[in-house]
Each structure stands twice: as C-alpha cells, then as structure tokens.
Task: inverse folding
C-alpha cells in the first residue's frame, strides 16, 4: 500500500490486540484467531499486530512473524494491519522487511533499546526502518522517547513517515508539535482510551485502544461522541468505565497489559498470562475486576 493511501485510511479506532499465551507461556495462536474474529465484528479502522499491548518486547523474531502472519490470515484485508518493530536498527529493519513481504499495510516504529539516545542517532534509526520497505510508517513516541517539536519536524522529512502516535499523554507538548509540523503528518492519540476526549479537542480523529480487546463497542462510542464533542454523553462513560479501568492499571508497572488480559480471561476470551518482566494481576485483586465487569455488561462485546 502506498504511504499516502495508508494515511488516507486512518480514521476512528485502531485496536492493539493482546498476544494470547498458554499457561506455559507459549503462543496461543488459536486464541489469537478467535479474538481477532470477534474484534472484526466491529467497525475498527486497523489492528496493530504484536504491538505494545501485544507484548512485542517479549516475543522472539520467529514468534513475531507468527503473530503477524496469523493476524494477516484472519483479517484478510477487511481492515488495515500494521505491525510494531523495534529493539535495535538491524532487528527492526528485518522485522519490517518480513512484515512487508507478508503483506502488512504499514509499520509502527517503536523506540530503540538505548534510552536517551542522541537525536542524530534516532534520526538514523527511524530513517533506516523507513527505507527498509516502501510502506508507510508511523512513529510511536513512548516511554523515554520524548521528542521536541523541532525533532518531529526533522523526522517529518522522512519520505514514508506519514503518521505520529503519541504515547506520552502530554497534551501541551503534543499541541506544540502539531502546531509546528501541521498536516505533514497524520496525528494519532495513543496514550490510552482515557485521553481520547483530550486528543479529540486538538482536532485528532483517530486513537489507539486497548479496551477494544474486550469492549470494542465502548471504544467506538468514545470515538463517536468525542468526534461530536458530545460531552453530555461522553463524560458519564468516561467516569463510569474508562477512568476506573485506567486507575486500576496504574497500580503497578505492566498492568496496562495485565489488567486487559485478566478481564479477558474472566470473560472467557483467550488471553492467558503475561510474560515476565510483566506481572499478572494479583489474585486478591481479581474479585475487584469481576465486580467491575458486572457494571460493564452494556458496553462489552
């Protein structure tokens, strides 16, 4: 897919599917297929195969390929499929090239392993990934990878870079970046469902959702109401469902994935445990999640 064609197809909710594991931490590809089929019953914009919620950093290169290929097989062109790449320049290039050959529509570039890298090195890293395939690429600004507006403007010169996914949740900084770079990039809200209203007030109309794993109806409703600036209907949804979920996952590092998987397990979906160094939701907290899900019945799949 041409990079600009990819950009033109962004609109609405991008889902970050989890990667299900068996009890022995092996891949549960059958479970992945089941989850994707259920997700695709809803009008999402795209899926990210083996992204952050999909525990990309815990996968071997071979497992990453399996997840990408399984996702492509199930999706069958119904929605966009992007895949996450990262770790280091050489491995990210190999991951991107394999995924492009397999048939993904675009690449989502994660920060490299080396924290607080020099800007020149980062520019070379992202340029190498972009030049490895003809596909459109989005950069995911997360964790330590905090970019100045000037650096984002520099990165926007990369020919196949078409989108930027914010994972910091710093609305002031994102506003300054958008103001400087303008429509040279497509802007995506990527720090969580809880920040979708704030992103949409900046004019953004696409966000990435981890809640879509088990509550895609809620994710789509958030997009719809935020797009209409309908705070009368949106605010109660955020207060009842989304903010309590994000407060729970803020209890421990890694819970952003663990809580989603725990809720999916409780709902009878394929999820399984997380891989270390992430930790599973503590047993004494499971009852809280059960009670939370009782209140969620109206917005679940």
Result:
């Amino acid at each position: 897919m041409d990079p600009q064609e990819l950009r033109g197809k962004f609109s609405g909710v991008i889902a970050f599917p989890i990667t299900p594991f068996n009890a022995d931490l092996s891949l549960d590809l059958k479970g992945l297929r089941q989850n994707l089929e259920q997700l695709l019953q809803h009008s999402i914009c795209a899926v990210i195969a083996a992204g952050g919620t999909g525990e990309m950093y815990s996968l071997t290169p071979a497992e990453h390929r399996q997840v990408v290929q399984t996702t492509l097989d199930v999706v069958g062109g119904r929605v966009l499929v992007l895949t996450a790449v990262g770790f280091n320049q050489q491995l990210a290039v190999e991951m991107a090239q394999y995924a492009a050959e397999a048939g993904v529509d675009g690449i989502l570039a994660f920060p490299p392993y080396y924290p607080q890298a020099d800007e020149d090195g980062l520019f070379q890293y992202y340029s190498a990934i972009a030049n490895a395939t003809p596909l459109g690429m989005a950069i995911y600004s997360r964790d330590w990878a905090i970019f100045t507006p000037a650096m984002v403007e520099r990165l926007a010169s990369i020919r196949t870079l078409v989108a930027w996914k914010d994972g910091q949740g710093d609305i002031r900084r994102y506003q300054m970046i958008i103001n400087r770079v303008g429509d040279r990039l497509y802007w995506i809200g990527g720090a969580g469902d809880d920040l979708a209203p704030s992103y949409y007030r900046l004019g953004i109309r696409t966000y990435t959702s981890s809640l879509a794993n088990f509550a895609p109806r809620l994710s789509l409703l958030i997009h719809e109401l935020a797009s209409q600036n309908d705070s009368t209907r949106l605010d109660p949804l955020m207060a009842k469902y989304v903010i309590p979920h994000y407060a729970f996952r803020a209890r421990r590092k890694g819970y952003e994935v663990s809580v989603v998987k725990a809720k999916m397990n409780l709902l009878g979906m394929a999820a399984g445990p997380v891989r270390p160094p992430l930790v599973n939701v503590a047993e004494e907290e499971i009852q809280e999640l059960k009670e939370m899900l009782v209140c969620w019945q109206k917005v679940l799949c």
